[in-house]
Structure formats: structure tokens, C-alpha cells
Amino acid sequence: ITTARASCRYESCTCRGEDTTRPQPTEGQALSRPGAASPVALLPAAHPAARTAMSNLTWNKATQDQANRNFKRLEALIKRPDNIICADCPLKGPRWASLNLGIFVCMPCAGIHRNLGVHISKMKSVNLDKWNADWVDNMEAWGNERANKVLEANI
User: How far is 116 from 128, CA to CA, in rounded Å?
Assistant: First the structure.
């Protein structure tokens, strides 16, 4: 891990514009694994470090065999008790996911997330899209309950 110095210009950021040193993943290094807290993931999505985190996810299409394996992992994830209900509303059976936030949401909430922009919430369908392994890893690491505890901590 290398370090990068940055001065934040975002008002809602916890660093309050101070010059901070943050760990930055090196090429080929994973963002987070289950049980490991990623400091980048704790920042607001519009924060420059969060954009760096999104750029480290792979965007190459998965092969059909990889996509089938990842779909089975996603199906197991979405059946977990904390993921049965949409992360944003009380509807059951979410079939959409935010890759960078690590949450499962229903179709109406997915539309709202899409309108926020991909720099804040990158949406994929659980059924319609082919998923890469690192995307599923991020979903396993977060999930609705953990993500809501972090994202809604100060509400």
C-alpha cells in the first residue's frame, strides 16, 4: 500500500479540508475482503478517495462460466436475513445492487440510485447483468446491515 496526500474540498467530508494521508491500494490489490474494513469505503461516495476505490474494481466482462459461479454466490448473499429487505425501504425481495456501496435494493430505489449518478452509486441487476468476482466480494464484505450502520451512523 502506498500513501497519497490529498486536501479535501468536500464540505460533508470528515477530514474537513485538512491535509490527510490515506492508504491507497496498489495495482492488483483488493479493496476489501470480508471482515476487513476499508478506510476508503467509509468516506462519502463523492469523495476523491471513493472515486479511486471505484476505479480499482475490474470492469472487464466476466466469462459465462465466471458469471454463473458469481450468480450462485449472489443468490446465496441475497437470501441472507440482512439482505432480504431493501437497504433503503421496507420492500422485500431486492433484485438490484449498488456495487460500490455494497447494498441490495428494490427496483424503485434502484431508479433513485441511478439518478444519483455512477460516481455515487453504480447499479447492477442481480439477474440481468454478468457479475465479476471482485464485485461479489465487495457485496459479501458489506451487505445491507453493515452498510446501513456505516452510512446512516450520523442520521
Answer: 21
Element (DSSP H or E) covering residue 144: helix 143-151
> Backbone phi, then psi, for 20, in 5-degree steps?
-125, 160
Angle of helix 143-151 versus helix 133-141 axis, rounded to 10? 60
- pLDDT means per 10 residues in the chain (155 residues)? 45 46 44 43 48 58 90 95 95 95 96 94 94 93 93 86
Report pLDDT digits (tens) over 38-52: 444 454 554 444 444
- Residue in the structure block whose three cell numbers are 474494513: 37
For helices 64-78 and 133-141, what crossing angle results, to 10°?
10
List b or e across 7-41, with b for residues whose CB sees 16 or more CB atoms inside 10 angstroms.
ebeeeebeeeeeebebebbeeeeebbeeeeebebb
How is residue 137 written as a grid cell? 466480494
pLDDT of residue 153: 87
